[in-house]
Amino acid sequence: MATVKQSSELRRMSDLTVIYGAFHARMPGVAPAQSGLERVAELCRRHCSTLSGRDRNLIRDQLFAIAADWDLRRDRLDGQSSKCLHVLAEFLR
User: Fold this and answer.
1) 40 Cβ contact partners less than 8 Å away, ≥ 6 residues apart
2) Which helix (H) or strand (E) holds 40?
């Protein structure tokens, strides 16, 4: 029997799919769900090196938003808020 998911759950799952895909593409062998801020920062650094045509001010603002939304008490990626995951996924798209 199928279960109905809320739109917020679906968006969170979609964002996690984008983030996990970026981890697998740029950092193979790393378990994304167990990753903390240090690994996410490394992922963002590697992603930035591939962005040649994007607005650098927009990139800076997105990185600040990720850092501001990150909950250090729950440092693992899977423990972050949906808002934080959405901002990170938008950056990685």
Assistant:
1) 66, 70, 77, 88
2) helix 37-48
CB 78 within 8 A of CB 11: no
pLDDT tens per residue across all 93 residues of the chain? 567 678 888 999 999 999 999 999 999 988 888 888 999 999 999 998 887 777 888 889 999 999 999 998 988 898 899 999 999 999 998
**pTM value?**
0.84
- DSSP H/E element including 91: helix 82-92
Question: What sign for the dihedral angle of Cα 70, 75, 81, 85?
Answer: positive
